[in-house]
């Protein structure tokens, strides 16, 4: 005969419920004893019936197991508490940074001339002064950059002028020696070269 699987729900019949409780309680205590014996585990089992009657099983002393359980729970709470504090701090920092980002975004849009209708006259005047200060700093930086570029270009110009003079001298020497050698070989060619140089 095959045992049918029972549905796990509250048993309505009080007598059947008491019988089931008694059988399952004994089975649970038996399993706890086996687990304690096989695995050398400390087990404390406390069961209250629906009528309020206490049943317990303990592999050693129940008070000792309960104290050990409390110490374990307390140490877990201490470990989790700082992490909760850290999480709260991180949430606070995140909220602060989000608000600061929103403010800076709004300020940037105001500087770009957007959403100005929400500003009061005093805020508009302060924004105008801020933009004027920014423009003067921008002009100074631009002027300094241009001055440095001009100095660098003048240095290059001087260097190129020196190189040009050196090349002219070199070309002039080469031309004179070339003309001198031509004069010795062919006088007609010298005249042609002089004319083409001019």
UniProtKB/TrEMBL annotation:
Matches recorded under SUPFAM superfamilies: SRF-like (SSF55455)
Chief localization: nucleus
Gene Ontology biological process terms from the UniProt entry: positive regulation of transcription by RNA polymerase II
Name this protein carries in UniProt: MADS-box domain-containing protein
CDD domains on file: MADS_MEF2_like
InterPro entries: MADS-box/MEF2_TF, MEF2-like_N, TF_Kbox, TF_MADSbox, TF_MADSbox_sf
Keyword Transcription: yes
GO molecular function terms noted in the UniProt entry: DNA-binding transcription factor activity; protein dimerization activity; RNA polymerase II transcription regulatory region sequence-specific DNA binding
Keywords associated with the record: DNA-binding, Nucleus, Transcription, Transcription regulation
Protein localization: Nucleus
One matching Pfam family: SRF-TF
Residue ranges constituting the K-box domain according to the UniProt record: 87-177
Domain MADS-box: start-end pairs: 1-61
Organism: Opuntia streptacantha
Top-level taxon: Eukaryota
GO cellular component terms attached to this protein's record: nucleus
Keyword GTP-binding: no
